[in-house]
Structure formats: structure tokens, C-alpha cells
């Protein structure tokens, strides 16, 4: 065996994303594997498969085989095939869609009834860029995940926020690899913000009106 072969350890990990339709499973996988996002949504029929290659500290080469399983597979007959020899399962819900959170227990029960091998599970609360539209209160979420002993991370497929670090943490945890903060966030994209032209900002600012106070003969400002 050559030195380079000895130094690099090659692993294959199978990761499955599960959850209701439209929570953003395909978008999360595409952002993670291809760094792209589209607003268009085509429902995943059956399952799609993606691969991604990572090099973890200690020169561990990891090939990820990621299964994007369509939401309708909750009641389908193929779930056991898609989850065969799976290592990591990520349950996805949409923070702006309460029913997608309510159906997590059913997804978890279905998985437990389907697989026998030990897996590492986690949950992603997707669309955290839409925090202002949050439909599930955080004080409901925390006790649920504590009870299930499941790591829950907010992520956004649209901006990529928290997604790379959450994925890296999961993979490292499964492999028992220590990740430094730098390694965890190595692939974290820069979140891009749209610049608003000054005129649009100005028109939204409250108008300041000068009011003359006759009693004290001073001028005050009021916001309108
Ligand atoms: N704002 C926002 N929209 C998202 C996000 N992730 C997915 N979407 C949108 O949600 C819709 C459903 O996404 P898709 O990935 O097809 O969901 P899937 O059925 O779970 O695979 C699409 O219109 C996506 O553009 C996100 O993080 N933020
Ligand atoms: Mg899909």
C-alpha cells in the first residue's frame, strides 16, 4: 500500500431526507450538493439520489450518497428499499407550516417500523429565512425534540444559513471525528442581502414634521 493510500481513509455514508412534501428536502440537498436554489418546485416522485465528496480532518475521504425521498413515501411501499443500510436520517419540517411539524411523529414511527439497523437521526427546521412567518412556536418545538432526544437545527436552503455547519456536525458525529469551528463552517456560504435603493428606503421612513409650540415658543418634532 502506498503512503497516500495509507493516509487516506475512504468511507461511504448514506443519508436520507424525510418529511412532508414542500418542506424543502430537494432544495436542502441541492443547496448542499450543488450550491444552488430555485423557487420552482417539482414534487419528487419516489426518490432521487445525489452524491457529494467531502474530506474531513485526518484526511478522511467521505462519499455521501444522499436520498431525496418524496413526501408521499410516508404511505408508499418502497420506503424500506430507500432506507436500506442508511446511516443518517434527517427529518425535515418547514417552520412556516405547522402540519409539517405535526407529522414528524408519524414519520419517526414509520421509520422505526421500517429499519432495524442503528441510525443517527436529526431534524432540520427549514426556511429559517422566513422567521417572520414562523407558524410553530419555539416553546412547542424544544420539549418535543428533547423528549425524542433529537438534535434540531434551523436551516435555510434559500440562503444556505446553518445548513453546511449542521450537515458537517452530523457527519462528524456519526464518524466520531472532532470538527473545529473553522472546519465546521469551512463551506458556509456568505449570506447575500439585496441592496435596497435609497429612494425606496426614504419613502418608508416616517415623515418628521416640525410643530411650533406657542406656549414655550420652541419647535418640537413628531413622527408620523
Ligand atoms: N423561502 C424559502 N423557500 C424554500 C426554502 N427551501 C425550499 N423552499 C421553497 O419551498 C418549495 C418546496 O421546496 P422543495 O425543495 O421542492 O420541497 P420538497 O417537496 O420537500 O422537496 C419550493 O418553492 C422552494 O423554492 C427555504 O429555505 N426558504
Ligand atoms: Mg422534493
Q: What are the main properties of this structure?
A:
single chain, 224 residues, alpha/beta, Rossmann fold, 6-stranded mixed beta sheet, two-stranded antiparallel sheet, 9 helices, 27% strand, disordered N terminus, disordered C terminus, binds guanosine-5'-diphosphate, binds magnesium ion
Question: What would your notes on this structure say?
Answer:
Belongs to the small GTPase superfamily. Rab family. It comes from Photinus pyralis (Common eastern firefly). This is SOCS box domain-containing protein. Pfam families: Ras. The protein has 224 residues and is α/β, with parallel strands linked by helices. It has a single domain, classed as P-loop containing nucleotide triphosphate hydrolases (Rossmann fold, 3-Layer(aba) Sandwich), CATH 3.40.50. It has nine helices and eight strands. Helix 6 links the parallel strand 5 and strand 6. The relative contact order is 0.15. The N terminus and C terminus are likely disordered. The site of magnesium ion has 4 residues, from helix 2. The site of guanosine-5'-diphosphate has 19 residues, from helix 2.
Specify the helix fraction band: 25-40%
Number of helices: 9
Major sheet attributes:
6 strands, mixed
| Average residue pLDDT | 84
List the domain count as a whole number.
1
Q: What is the structural class?
A: alpha/beta
Low-confidence stretches: 1-6, 220-224
The strands making up the biggest β-sheet line up spatially as 2-3-1-4-5-6
Report the principal-axis shape.
Answer: globular
Q: Total number of β-strand segments?
A: 8
Strand content: 25-35%
Instruction: Tell me the series of helices and strands, N- to C-terminal.
Output: HEHEEHEHHEHEHHHEE
Give the full name of the CATH homologous superfamily. P-loop containing nucleotide triphosphate hydrolases
Question: Ligands in the structure?
Answer: guanosine-5'-diphosphate, magnesium ion
Which CATH class is shown? Alpha Beta
Amino acid at each position: 500500500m502506498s503512503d497516500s493510500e495509507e493516509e487516506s481513509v475512504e468511507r461511504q455514508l448514506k443519508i436520507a431526507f424525510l418529511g412532508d412534501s414542500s418542506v424543502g428536502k430537494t432544495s436542502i440537498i441541492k443547496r448542499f450538493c450543488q450550491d444552488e436554489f430555485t423557487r420552482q418546485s417539482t414534487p419528487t416522485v419516489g426518490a432521487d439520489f445525489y452524491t457529494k465528496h467531502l474530506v474531513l480532518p485526518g484526511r478522511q475521504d467521505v462519499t455521501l450518497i444522499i436520498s431525496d425521498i418524496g413526501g408521499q413515501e410516508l404511505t408508499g411501499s418502497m420506503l424500506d428499499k430507500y432506507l436500506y443500510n442508511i446511516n443518517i436520517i434527517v427529518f425535515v419540517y418547514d417552520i412556516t407550516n405547522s402540519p409539517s411539524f405535526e407529522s414528524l411523529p408519524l414519520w419517526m414511527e414509520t421509520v422505526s417500523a421500517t429499519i432495524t439497523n442503528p441510525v443517527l437521526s436529526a431534524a432540520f427546521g427549514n426556511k429559517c429565512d422566513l422567521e417572520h412567518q414562523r407558524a410553530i412556536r419555539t416553546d412547542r418545538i424544544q420539549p418535543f425534540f428533547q423528549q425524542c432526544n433529537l438534535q434540531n437545527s434551523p436551516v435555510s436552503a434559500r440562503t444556505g444559513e446553518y445548513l453546511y455547519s449542521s450537515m458537517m456536525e452530523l457527519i462528524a458525529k456519526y464518524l466520531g471525528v472532532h470538527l473545529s469551528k473553522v472546519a465546521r463552517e469551512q463551506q458556509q456560504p456568505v449570506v447575500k442581502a439585496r441592496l435596497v435603493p435609497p429612494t425606496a428606503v426614504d419613502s418608508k421612513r416616517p415623515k418628521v414634521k416640525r410643530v411650533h409650540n406657542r406656549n414655550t415658543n420652541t419647535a418640537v418634532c413628531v413622527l408620523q
